[in-house]
Specification:
Chain lengths: 112, 114
């Protein structure tokens, strides 16, 4: 299994600002995944973060809005840029250990 | 495009009851299926993983089955307890060049009452 730590656990931000979420894993992993869970909804994959290359974004998500860094095999950041109330969600990072996926505790973001 | 549906959306049962949660998916070409538990405002805890070649997995009071050809999975919870109250999510994965990506279902919100 993998232990994943996310920071911050929650934040309240003003619209128009940006927030960077950190994800730290206790072991080296090739790929890290970022998901969004909007209120009352299920999880949607934002992007896959690969070490040493550009992140791969899913349909509907763009790098200018959700820039991702992956400086090494245990760490990644997701930035939510120019926030609006519609960005209020839980953001989760995930890794896979073999076939199994593991998740951090999430970052609850409220944009006011 | 893979779509995952969970029925029922919400369920309330008395303590001690056995219950079944259902998950269906439209594309049977999956790598594996995973059941998660999510407590309010929290992240996901992995409960059971069933690989595509397997039919079922058991952990304690939980048993999950997989019928890949019909696109269905069930999560059986025996002797439910108030501590089981949470949202249960199933997710299927497709192993692509982009890694093990998950498509999640809509979730079943379970409440176990004393």
């Amino acid at each position: 299994s993998a232990v994943i730590s996310q920071k911050p656990s929650r934040d309240i931000c003003q619209r128009g600002t940006s927030l960077t979420i950190q994800c730290q894993v206790d072991s080296q992993v090739t790929m890290m995944f970022w998901y969004r869970q909007q209120p009352g909804q299920s999880l949607t994959l934002i992007a896959t973060a690969n070490q040493g290359s550009e992140a791969t974004y899913e349909s509907g998500f763009v790098i200018d809005k959700f820039p991702i860094s992956r400086p090494n095999l245990t760490f990644s950041t997701l930035t939510v840029s120019n926030m609006s109330p519609e960005d209020s969600s839980i953001y989760l990072c995930s890794v896979t250990g073999g076939p199994e996926a593991f998740f951090g505790q999430g970052t609850r973001l409220t944009v006011v | 495009k893979q779509e995952v549906t969970q029925i029922p959306a919400a369920l309330s049962v008395p303590e001690g009851e056995n219950l079944v949660l259902n998950c269906s998916f439209t594309d049977s070409a999956i790598y594996n299926l995973q059941w998660f538990r999510q407590d309010p405002g929290k992240g996901l805890t992995s409960l059971l993983l069933i690989q595509s070649s397997q039919r079922e997995q058991t952990s304690g009071r939980l048993n999950a089955s997989l019928d890949k050809s019909s696109g269905r999975s069930t999560l059986y919870i025996a002797a439910s307890q108030p501590g089981d109250s949470a949202t249960y999510l199933c997710a299927v994965s497709a192993l692509t060049g982009g890694g093990n990506k998950l498509t999640f279902g809509t979730g079943t919100q379970l409440k176990v009452e004393l």
